[in-house]
Amino acid sequence: MKNAATQTLEEQLVRVPAGSVTLDGNLTIPEDARGVVLFAHGSGSSRHSPRNRYVARLLNEAKLATLLIDLLTVHEEVIDARTSQLRFDIDLLAERLVDTTDWLTQFPDTRHLRIGYFGASTGAAAALSAAAVRPNVVGAIVSRGGRPDLAGAALMQVKAPTLLLVGEYDGQVIELNRHALAQMRCEKQLVIVPGATHLFEEPGALDVVAQLARDWFQRHLVQAPS
Fold this sequence. Notes:
By secondary structure, the chain is α/β, with parallel strands linked by helices. It has helices at 4-8, 50-61, 74-83, 90-106, 122-133, 171-183, 205-222, and strands at 12-18, 21-28, 36-40, 65-69, 115-120, 138-144, 162-167, 188-193.
């Protein structure tokens, strides 16, 4: 007999059409889910990122569905591993996030759920750019060690409440986040996580990230009026 925690962590592999390609994702929907968080992975990462999967598990325990998806195809990842260019193509990543967001609004198991974004590194810029395109659909955003500055002019168009999380010892990224925060016109907050570096690898650092993200999504995605 499976306990509730085991049931919560059951995943299904989904394939999401995005323009001329199809993206692979892992969708987890807890019983009585109250929202769904779409993960936008960062530079050189994937849906198998242990850090993002760790955060996703905590969100699942809080009755939030999660979709971890690769925004690049296997072929594109091979090219990007050699050139590091596609991971910085924010327009491309944002377009695919928009397509995935639209898919979530139509997929029978998620179409009734409000959507949030969790972005890391360059994925944060893609998340903010996509949220500017779908302001009435995206209800909350969390960035972990992100590069929101790369979203450019889209920053001023974001409507969703946005939480920026940066490690205390990630000095350059802190300044880039402060610059981006100043341009945003939505509800926003920058939190510096004590003792953490860029990847939040220090003991307890990722727990802080996961808890702050959970609280932000519960407040702005679950409790906020539709």
